[in-house]
Amino acid sequence: MAVYAIGDVQGCFRSLEALLRRIRFEPGHDQLWFVGDLVNRGPDSLRVVRFVRSQGDAARVVLGNHDLNLLAIAAGVRRRGKRNTLGDLLAAEDRNDLLGWLRGCPLLVEDPGLGISMVHAGILPQWSCKQAAALAREVEAALRSQDCATFLRHMYGDRPRCWRDSLADWDRLRLITNILTRMRYCDQQGRVDLSHTGPPGTQPEALKPWFAWPRKCRSRLVFGHWSALGVVQMGDVVCLDSGCVWGNELTAARLDKIPIEFTAVRCDSARR
Fold it and tell me: What mean pLDDT is predicted for residues 190-196?
């Protein structure tokens, strides 16, 4: 069995099909990990979600910020922006089944056998792997609850910026969500800065990429979210967002191989 992690698809279904052909994906035998942002900005969000869901247990998915935004729009607590391309999914006959499936997806996936954890954006350097997993479960419980719409309404915002174990209620859930699905930079104390999105070297001096600080979580980490960073492997950290939706590439990493093997295809269904 081969285990492939795939970067941010963002509705680029034709590129996903091309990548699966390139890696010779065998349904029913191989496993696909998706780093989040299955949807939005690309032209075929509906086909992407239907395909990934159809893979059953062979697909492991973490939610990204665009996936959460879709859920918020569907719940009526967020307006569709001009750049959103979610109309086909929101109008689909099976939308409730697809959205229910998305609500059930985790924010963090662990595989002890491979020694790998996957999130969309990152893990706060001050968190252990065990703590990060437990905090992800808190947000997942809110998403799956009958009060999901209320959580989604309070999810937006950049504060608080600094984690404390004593954080409670919406502030606590908002910051956990921001760390796992939006974070790129933080300072030495773990204060998260969500305003800087460019590549390393463009941020203020006090900030570093979250993975550049000493980390308590010693698992190998796979993430996406950061197209300006691109595909990089730095020790036990791998970023897989190669900016497919912007006309660059869609990338897969074979996780069961050491060293990790990377495969990419050019994207021809990009957002212009």
Answer: 97
